[in-house]
Amino acid sequence: MVTDKDVVFLSKRIKELADRAFKSNIVTNTFFLNLNEQTVFFSIKNLPDIDYKLIGGYEAAERKVVCFFPVDFNEGEESDIFDYLYVSPANEKFSDRLTHRDYLGAAMNLGIERNMIGDIIMSGNSAYIIVLKKISWVVADNLTNVKKTKVTIRIDKKLAVEAAAVNPIKRINTASLRIDALIAAVFNLSRGSASKYLDSERVFVNSKCILSHSLQVQPGNIISVRGIGRFKYLGEESTTKKGRLMASVECY
């Protein structure tokens, strides 16, 4: 939950970073922002005339940093922001069954703030943890156990994370491409239940909080529903004889 005080502080900090990038012609970035914080960013007015991107280390990232950069910015410099830590059991045979929560808890037990850690992508019983580069050494040097399982860590590449993040494609039958209809179809909810998530400000499309029930979803949109999951809408495939749409989504 983002309080009014949090909004004021976050907005001020983001403006300071944008001003610094604009005046000094350098790249600046925030810490990792959750979906609510990203919505705060999109609501900020009167930012300096400078380019920016929201990036999280891979295409489908939920937690992202706002990166401000000058006109001649080389996108390859994004690699200076993140490290991709591959954490895996030292001996799989004697490993506990590890989850996303286990890996996050182990990292935060090192005294690291949550906003320094991005998405955690599970790969079997191992995980890719995306972290800000400036604190990756803390994790690499000190994270030795997850639960009671001894682990090893190596710095990997973005391509490995992208490969691990690929999910099966799901085909859905929906009445329309309205956001409420799609949410209902993907998560097997009634239209009314899907609407409640919209009304309670728990639905985000491409990191922006959405209240409109009638928003038409476009191919490539990533929809997050806090509390139940997220998916990427891939597109319409066909229309049934009864006029309903067959579409495909990738569920994370």
What does this structure look like?
This protein has 252 residues and is of the alpha+beta class. Helix content is 28%, strand content 31%. The protein has a six-stranded antiparallel beta sheet with strand order 9-14-13-12-10-11. A five-stranded antiparallel beta sheet has the order 5-6-4-8-7. A hairpin with a 2-residue loop joins strand 10 and strand 11. Helix 6 crosses helix 7. The mean pLDDT is 91.
Q: Keywords, please?
A:
single chain, six-stranded antiparallel beta sheet, five-stranded antiparallel beta sheet
The sequence of SSEs as H and E is: HEHEEEHEEHEEHEHHEEEEE
Secondary structure category: alpha+beta
Number of contiguous helices: 7
Low-confidence residue ranges: none
In terms of DSSP E residues, the strand content is 25-35%
Quantity of strands, as a count: 14
Question: Distance between the terminal alpha carbons, to the nearest Å?
Answer: 23 Å
Radius of gyration: 20 Å
Write down the overall geometry: globular
State the share of residues found in helices, binned by percent: 25-40%
User: How would you characterize the largest beta sheet?
Assistant: 6 strands, antiparallel
Mean pLDDT: 91
The neighbouring-strand order within the major sheet is 9-14-13-12-10-11
